[in-house]
Each structure stands twice: as C-alpha cells, then as structure tokens.
Amino acid sequence: xxxxxxxxxxxxxxxxxxxxxxxxxxxxxxxxxxxxxxxxxxxxxxxxxxxxxxxxxxxxxxxxxxxxxxxxxxxxxxxxxxxxxxxxxxxxxxxxxxxxxxxxxxxxxxxxxxxxxxxxxxxxxxxxxxxxxxxxxxxxxxxxxxxxxxxxxxxxxxxxxxxxxxxxxxxxxxxxxxxxxxxxxxxxxxxxxxxxxxxxxxxxxxxxxxxxxxxxxxxxxxxxxxxxxxxxxxxxxxxxxxxxxxxxxxxxxxxxxxxxxxxxxxxxxxxxxxxxxxxxxxxxxxxxxxxxxxxxxxxxxxxxxxxxxxxxxxxxxxxxxxxxxxxxxxxxxxxxxxxxxxxxxxxxxxxxxxxxxxxxxxxxxxxxxxxxxxxxxxxxxxxxxxxxxxxxxxxxxxxxxxxxxxxxxxxxxxxxxxxxxxxxxxxxxxxxxxxxxxxxxxxxxxxxxxxxxxxxxxxxxxxxxxxxxxxxxxxxxxxxxxxxxxxxxxxxxxxxxxxxxxxxxxxxxxxxxxxxxxxxxxxxxxxxxxxxxxxxxxxxxxxxxxxxxxxxxxxxxxxxxxxxxxxxxxxxxxxxxxxxxxxxxxxxxxxxxxxxxxxxxxxxxxxxxxxxxxxxxxxxxxxxxxxxxxxxxxxxxxxxxxxxxxxxxxxxxxxxxxxxxxxxxxxxxxxxxxxxxx
Length: 678
Known about the structure:
By secondary structure, the chain is mostly helical. The protein has 33 helices and seven strands. The protein has helices at 2-10, 23-35, 41-48, 52-68, 71-83, 95-102, 105-116, 122-125, 148-151, 157-168, 187-192, 200-205, 215-225, 238-248, 261-270, 272-285, 320-329, 332-348, 355-367, 372-380, 398-412, 429-435, 439-446, 469-480, 496-502, 528-538, 562-565, 575-587, 589-596, 614-628, 636-650, 658-670, 673-676; strands spanning 19-20, 128-137, 143-144, 176-183, 301-307, 313-319, 387-388. The strands form three sheets. A three-stranded antiparallel beta sheet has the order 3-2-4, sandwiched between helices. A two-stranded antiparallel sheet has the order 1-7. A two-stranded antiparallel ribbon has the order 5-6. Helix 1 (2-10) packs across helix 20 and helix 15 (261-270) packs across helix 16 (272-285). The longest helix is centred in the N-terminal third of the chain and has 17 residues, at 52-68. It is globular, with a radius of gyration of 28 Å. Residues 90-97, 139-144, 234-238, 244-260, 511-521 and 552-572 have low confidence and may be disordered.
C-alpha cells in the first residue's frame, strides 16, 4: 500500500506529457534494465492482447518476477561499478583477470545487497561480508593473496590462512577462488570496517601518493555518496603547473633549483584555489591514514567537513571508517544524491529531476528503508518511466545536452582540463579564467554554431562522428536561453558572442518545440555486452566473445564508447556501433544456422525458397519474428518492408533454402532498432 501511495503521488505531478511508449516497449525497457534480456515471445504475445488496466497489473507482477531473478543483481551491478569508476566490459582476457574483477569483497557486498534487497546505506555500513581471494601460485611457487593480505591485520582467520598456506606451500596448476567470512567482532574491527570503502578493490582503484595523501579516496566518497564532483584544480600558470607536476612525480632531485618540497606542500594545502576542495578533502583523507597494502586495524581520526547544498557547514569529528560512514549516511545530501543515481539509472540521465519531484522521491526512498528493489518499483511504476514530453526553449537544461558532451568526453576525458560532466553544471568560472571567455562560448566557436557547423574544428574528423542539425539546434537553444543548469539557473547571458548567437535561426526551423536528446520515447541503446549475451541466450550458445571483439586489429575501441560501456546515445545510433554489430552477426551465422536447422523450427529446412508459397514464406518470417522479438513488437508496416527486402534479396539466388531465409530474417531483425534498443 505504501508503494502504491507514493506511485500515485508521482503520477499526479504538474508535468504535461506529450505521449507515452507502448505497453510492449514499457515491459521491454523494464526487462532489460532488471534482467539484461528481453521479454520472452510468450510475454510479448500476452501484452499485445491486453488493455491498459490489465497491463498495469501484469506489469507490477512482472517487476516482482524480474527483481526476484538471480540475474537482477548481476545486471544492475554495472551501474554501481560505473558509479565507482570501476566498470570494465568483458574483453578478451585471461580467466584470472575476469575472476579477479568478479570475485572480491567489493563485488560480493554489492551483489548480496542487491540480491537480498538490503538498505542502500549498507554500501557504507556493512561489516559482514566475504573476503574473497584468488589464490594464484606463480611459476616459482610464490603466492599472491591480493585481498587476504589487505585484511590480514584484522585477523585472526585471514592471517592464519595466509600464514598456513605460505608455510605449507600452495602448488597448483591453476588459480583457486577461496572465500573466508569476514565479520566485525572486536572493537577495532567494528571501528575499522565500513562496507565497500574498506575493500582492497576500492583502495586499489583509488591509489594514493606522497602528495595525494589519500585525498583521491576521500574525493571518491564525496563524488559517490554526496554528489560532489570534486574535479581537481588545474592552475592557469604554466610554471606553477610544471612545479606541482615535478612534486607529484618526485622530480625535484632531477631539477635542482625548483621550489622546495616544503614550499610546494604548503602551496598545495593553502592556495585559495586548492583550498576550495582541500578544506573538506584533508579531514576525510586523515581517516585513511596508516592503510596501504594492509588495512590499518586501528581507527584513525578525521572528520566529515563540507558545505551542504543549502550552504550549511557540516563539521563532524570521527574516528575510523565506521563513524565516517555513519556521518555520511545521516546527511540529507546523501539521500538526495542516491535518489539522483537511481533516477539516472532507471528514468534517464537526460531527463532533469525537478526539485519538487526529488523531494517526493527522497521521502519515498526513506519510506522503503532505502531498499533498492522497492525503490526501483516506485520509479518504474511512475509516469516518468514511460511518458515523455517535448521541450520548449525555456525548458532546456544541462541534462538535455549532456549526452552531446559525453560523446566529446570519449576523447577528452583523460585530459587534465576536461570538466567533470556529472552533476548539474560542469563549466564553472575556472574555465572562463583559462580560456579568457566562458567555456560554452568556446564550444559555440569550435562547433561553429553560428555557421551551421561549416568550418568547425570540433568534433574533428578523426572522431568518427559529427553534430547533426538537430544536435546543433539543441546546443544553440540551450546557450541562447542562458546555458541553464539542471536547477534552471542561467550561466551565460551577456557579451557580444551571446548577442550574435541569440539572433541565429535554427537549422531545422524549431520555433516552439525541440526534440529531447534521445528518441522521443527515451529509448536507450543496448550495450555491447548485453547484445552479445542476448545473442548467446537466443541461440543457446556458451558465452564466446572471441569473434566479436570490442577492439580492432590496432587495439582501438570500435566506435565511441557506447558499444562498450552503454552510455546513452543522442537520438541516432552511431554508425561504428552498427558496423561492429553487423560484423559480429556475420561471425555468428553458423551458430544461427545450426540452431535453426532443428525441425522444431522448420519442417523442411532444405526446401528451396523459390519453391515455397507466399504463405509458407510469411510463416518463416513469423518464426523469426517470434523468436527474435516476439509477435507485435515491430509494427506491421516495418515487418512488411523487411519481408519485401529479404524476399527480393533471396530471389537473386535460386539455390537459397528456407533455412537460409530464416537465418537472413533473423539477422535482419537483430539489426533493427527494435532489437538494438529498449
């Protein structure tokens, strides 16, 4: 009843929706988000014959079913890995590398939380999880205990295990996964252990240096749990840049005469630009003191210090990771931040979350005790999951243009000057100091918005993509209306360039309405990993990724990163992504042929296509449609076009069989947006 009341509140907002996706698309979207696979053909057939009231009840039932599946946790886990900047797609690598990514205390905790629907705050508060290690003997007999060594000072079970194995020797021809329960029982352990933070994978992902002093780890906590992007400051003076670089790389001995180590350290911790972050980073970083290869068994003092979104000062002294975690999860900004994460994952990053709606969702998040499955159901049962609106110029926010900048970020993310695209607005006043003009103005210049893209320098030809007229219109509309952040506050409203841009007409003639950044149904593109898994599921094939590598012969990622990490796309599918998928389907043709050769599909697979009646030909198309998508998912007009195209192609070769036709129909359907998107 509580979930139903919240859902009703979220369906009675002031938002005016322009339309909604079909019931079949709605179910498909939920299935992919929660299980990584499409609805079964039987489910698609069932939905096709339902009215809206019956479907809503059926949809709620299916959500419970999807969330109860074992595949939910593994499907949803990449969202958290991206959040912690740890996501690595399945690539052609050794079993050890893939096991090491999946078998560890960090991932075990996440999977258990999702499977058991534990409160979300347990990401920080849990003190009961499996310490998992891959015991890997080297050729010389030495042992590698990557994670057990990290915890061994907390002992005694881990310490005893490591010492026993080292004493006895562990000679094996292959790696072995070993799990040991890790529970906080002593006072020191209870002060020290704090969920995902006190795992070897977290420490390994965010290493420290003599100059960093655990600030990177503190920044990761601010970014993940309080939605503070914590982008490092890059000084505008070249000599200062060089000096700090020498310090960070310990080059002062090689370049005598540079600023002293003490002066640099003082500079790093006292400069006003630096202190904008260091006043909050340094107190939190102190909690990590004493931990390196081993987790420090003694709690170190520190503090949670920062200014809230409302401008209030928080200053809470803590001792150890547990108290730090408890301080974080009691902050209103923590709740707001986690609600934003779920919104981005379930509803979409391109759809701004209004303050009034966020306030209701925070209440809902608290009302379900931060349990992820319950909160996901609230979001998926809300209007925002399946209804959409067109945009007026004044409605455009940073979130709407963010996907464009994320395509730019696929090349620029590694640059020190690259803005952090997370959050409500990434282009702060620092970039104006650096460029001598607002960064949005620099973007307009390099993309030549004032000349319809003619003569643009960005994106370069080597990027493999270009801005479409609709994209330039969206960027132009955003800038003309003040480059507003997600809260609607303008950041660019004056200057000669602004006046010039304000007079420019849209290329597509958009005056009253602009299209959202995605398909008007907010359709998302499937990730490369999900596509390959779907193919394996469809054709009962063991996972075999070797023939569909994400990299070409020069080890370049195929297309831009959407093929690998599944970032949302801007309205159109990138052609490099499609070329990769077509190539992959070609390598899988023999698998499809073997699968379809069964009499379960075709009573006479070797009968010539030319000898089959029109009725028999359409029945073969129906077989492919039901197996790949489910009947009714693809509109009848589109299906007729596919039939005509395939029939025309097969007619050119009199030796094509019904089996050939079925495989070609399947490959064609697998290449449509009805399969590639959800």
